[in-house]
Q: What sequence folds into this?
C-alpha cells in the first residue's frame, strides 16, 4: 500500500510537465498557423503585385493618332507587347478633371471601342468590340499611396477584352460633352486576376 | 525511484523558450522567402523594360530623295519594324509582320503603297514610336548668305556705278538743289563732273572738260567750261567726284554755299532717280558712300550726311538715316577738306511702312547739311555711292 502511494506521487510531476509542454505546443502551433495565415495573405498580395509589375513592364500603350470633330473625339491607341507571349488584356474608359487625375479618382463613361483587324473588309479595318459589364468593386486601380484600391462600390462599367496580338490598334470614340471641356479622357489597360480587374497602364488625353 | 518535480520557475522558462523557438523557426523563413521573391521579380522587370526603352528611343527615321525616288532611311542605332502607316486621307494600313528596315538601310516608299511622302501622315514602329512625316523631312538647305565685304564687289552691289556709266542704268535722273543759308536754289543747278585726261584732249572716248547731267536726254552733256577743275577732285586722288554746278546767265560755276555768322546753315541735296530696284524683301540695306566737304576758311563747322531711299512712284514710302561715317580733315593751302567715308545700315523691317511694300524702283538722295558760325564757303563732292541689299 505504501508503494502504490509512492507511484502516484512520482507520476504527478511527469503529468504536469506533459500538460505544460502540450499547452506550449498547442499555443505555439496556433501562433504559427496564425503567422502562416498572415504571411500567406501578404504573400498573395505580393504575388499579385509582382504579376502586375511584370505584366506592366511587358506592354506599352501610346497615342497613335487623334481626331476632333465638333462634338466627338476619336483617339487611336496603340498597344504593343515587348515579349511575344499570349496574355489577355482588358480596356476601360474613364473621365477625370485635372484634380481627379492627380488624385487618381476616375468616373467611368460610355464610349465606342473598335479594334483594328487588318482582315476586316472596308471601314479601315476597325471592328466594334463588345463590352462586359462589371461592378466597380471588382476593378482595382493604383491609388496615390501605391496600393491597389477598388474603384468604388456603386458604379458599374464596361470592360472590353483585347484579343491577343503582338501589336494592337484601338479606336476609342466618345462625345466631347460626356468628357467635358478641359477634362481628360482616361484610357486604362487592365489585367484579370482571380475574377478581379487590376490597372496595368493608363493613358490620359486632354479634351 | 524518486522523481523530483521540476521547480516552477524552470518549467516556465523552458516553455517560453520553446514557444519563441517555434515562432522564430516558422516565421523567419517565410519573411525571408517573401523578401527574396519580390526582389528577384523587380530586378528582372527593370532589366527587360530598361533595354526596351533604350531601343525604343534609339529609333530614328529620315526621308531621303534618292535620285527622284523617296525612301525611308533608318539612321538610328537599332533595326526598325514599321508595322502601321497612316495615310493623308485618314486611312491606316497594318503590315503583317512589319516592314523591316535594318540599321543604316533604306526602303522605298513604294513598299508602303505610295510614291510621294505627302501621301503619308505618320509611320508607326513595332516599339510604339509614332513618326509624323513632316518630322522625317531633312532640314531645308539654306544657302549661306553672302555678305559683301566692306570693299565693293560687282556681285554684291545692286546699285553703284561710276559717273560715266550712270546713264546706262535704267532711266536714271539726277537732280540737285541747295540751300545757301538764305534760300533754296532749285533751278539751274546741275550735277556735274570733270573729265581729266592728263595732257590729252581725249581719253576713253571722253573729251577733257566738264559734263553736266541732262535729265531730258538722261545723259551727260559737255559744256564749254574748263576752269574750277580742282573742285571736281577735292581730295586730289584722281577719282572723279560728282559736284554741283549752277548756271548764271551763260556761265557755269561750282556751287559753293556761303555761310556767315548770320546765315550759318546750308544744305546740299542730290537725288538720283530710279537708282536701284529692290525686288526681294531685304531685311537690311547698306548704303556705301564717300562724300567730301571742303571749307574755304578755317571755320569751326558742323556737317552731317543723310541718305534717303524713296520709292520712285510713291514718295510717301521712304526710309532714311543719318550716316555715321568715319571722317578725316585734310588740311590744304586754300581749302580744307573733310572726307566722309563708310556705310550706313537701314534696318528695313523696323521702319513703319517700309517692310510690307518693299519691291520696286527707288530713288536715292544724299542730303549734306553744314553749319558754321563764321564766314566760310562750302563745296561738296561725292566720289562714290552704292546700295547693297541683304
A:
Amino acid at each position: 500500500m505504501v508503494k502504490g502511494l509512492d507511484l502516484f506521487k512520482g507520476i504527478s510531476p511527469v503529468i504536469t510537465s506533459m500538460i505544460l509542454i502540450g499547452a506550449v505546443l498547442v499555443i505555439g502551433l496556433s501562433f504559427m498557423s496564425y503567422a502562416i495565415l498572415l504571411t500567406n495573405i501578404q504573400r498573395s498580395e505580393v504575388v499579385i503585385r509582382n504579376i502586375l509589375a511584370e505584366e506592366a513592364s511587358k506592354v506599352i500603350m501610346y497615342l497613335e493618332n487623334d481626331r476632333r470633330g465638333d462634338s466627338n473625339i476619336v483617339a487611336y491607341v496603340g498597344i504593343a507587347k515587348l515579349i511575344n507571349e499570349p496574355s489577355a488584356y482588358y480596356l476601360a474608359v474613364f473621365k477625370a478633371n485635372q484634380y481627379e487625375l492627380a488624385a487618381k479618382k476616375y468616373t467611368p463613361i460610355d464610349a465606342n471601342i473598335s479594334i483594328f483587324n487588318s482582315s476586316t473588309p472596308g471601314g479601315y479595318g476597325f471592328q466594334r468590340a463588345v463590352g462586359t459589364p462589371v461592378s466597380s468593386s471588382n476593378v482595382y486601380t493604383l491609388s496615390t499611396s501605391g496600393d491597389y484600391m477598388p474603384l468604388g462600390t456603386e458604379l458599374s462599367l464596361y470592360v472590353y477584352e483585347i484579343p491577343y496580338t503582338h501589336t494592337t490598334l484601338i479606336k476609342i470614340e466618345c462625345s466631347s460633352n460626356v468628357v467635358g471641356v478641359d477634362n481628360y479622357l482616361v484610357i486604362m489597360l487592365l489585367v484579370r486576376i482571380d475574377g478581379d480587374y487590376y490597372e496595368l497602364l493608363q493613358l490620359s488625353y486632354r479634351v | 525511484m524518486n522523481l523530483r518535480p521540476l521547480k516552477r520557475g524552470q518549467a516556465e522558462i523552458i516553455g517560453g523558450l520553446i514557444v519563441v523557438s517555434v515562432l522564430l523557426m516558422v516565421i523567419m523563413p517565410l519573411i525571408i522567402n517573401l523578401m527574396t521573391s519580390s526582389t528577384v521579380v523587380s530586378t528582372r522587370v527593370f532589366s527587360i523594360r530598361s533595354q526596351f526603352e533604350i531601343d525604343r528611343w534609339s529609333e530614328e527615321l529620315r526621308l531621303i530623295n534618292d535620285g527622284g525616288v523617296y525612301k525611308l532611311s533608318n539612321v538610328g542605332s537599332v533595326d526598325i519594324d514599321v508595322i502601321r502607316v497612316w495615310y493623308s486621307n485618314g486611312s491606316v494600313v497594318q503590315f503583317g509582320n512589319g516592314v523591316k528596315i535594318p540599321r543604316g538601310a533604306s526602303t522605298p516608299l513604294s513598299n508602303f503603297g505610295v510614291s510621294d511622302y505627302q501621301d503619308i501622315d505618320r509611320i508607326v514602329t513595332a516599339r510604339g514610336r509614332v513618326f509624323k512625316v513632316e518630322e522625317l523631312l531633312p532640314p531645308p538647305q539654306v544657302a549661306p548668305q553672302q555678305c559683301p565685304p566692306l570693299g565693293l564687289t560687282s556681285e554684291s552691289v545692286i546699285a553703284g556705278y561710276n559717273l560715266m556709266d550712270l546713264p546706262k542704268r535704267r532711266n536714271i535722273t539726277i537732280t540737285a538743289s541747295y540751300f545757301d543759308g538764305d534760300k533754296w536754289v532749285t533751278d539751274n543747278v546741275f550735277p556735274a563732273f570733270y573729265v581729266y585726261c592728263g595732257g590729252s584732249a581725249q581719253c576713253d572716248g571722253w573729251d577733257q572738260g566738264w559734263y553736266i547731267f541732262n535729265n531730258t536726254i538722261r545723259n551727260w552733256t559737255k559744256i564749254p567750261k574748263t576752269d574750277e577743275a580742282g573742285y571736281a577732285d577735292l581730295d586730289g586722288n584722281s577719282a572723279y567726284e560728282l559736284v554741283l554746278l549752277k548756271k548764271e546767265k551763260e556761265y557755269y560755276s561750282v556751287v559753293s554755299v556761303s555761310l556767315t555768322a548770320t546765315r550759318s546753315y546750308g544744305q546740299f541735296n542730290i537725288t538720283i532717280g530710279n537708282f536701284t530696284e529692290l525686288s526681294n524683301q531685304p531685311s537690311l540695306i547698306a548704303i556705301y558712300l564717300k562724300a567730301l566737304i571742303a571749307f574755304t576758311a578755317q571755320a569751326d563747322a558742323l556737317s552731317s550726311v543723310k541718305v534717303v531711299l524713296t520709292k520712285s512712284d510713291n514718295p510717301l514710302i521712304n526710309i532714311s538715316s543719318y550716316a555715321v561715317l568715319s571722317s578725316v580733315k585734310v588740311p590744304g593751302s586754300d581749302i580744307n577738306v573733310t572726307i566722309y567715308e563708310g556705310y550706313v545700315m537701314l534696318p528695313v523691317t523696323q521702319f513703319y511702312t517700309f517692310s510690307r511694300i518693299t519691291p520696286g524702283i527707288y530713288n536715292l538722295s544724299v542730303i549734306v547739311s553744314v553749319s558754321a558760325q563764321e564766314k566760310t564757303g562750302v563745296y561738296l563732292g561725292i566720289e562714290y555711292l552704292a546700295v547693297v541689299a541683304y
Remarks:
- DSSP finds three helices and 13 strands in chain A.
- Chain A touches chain B through 46 residues (CB under 8 Å).
- The longest strand of chain A covers residues 196-206.
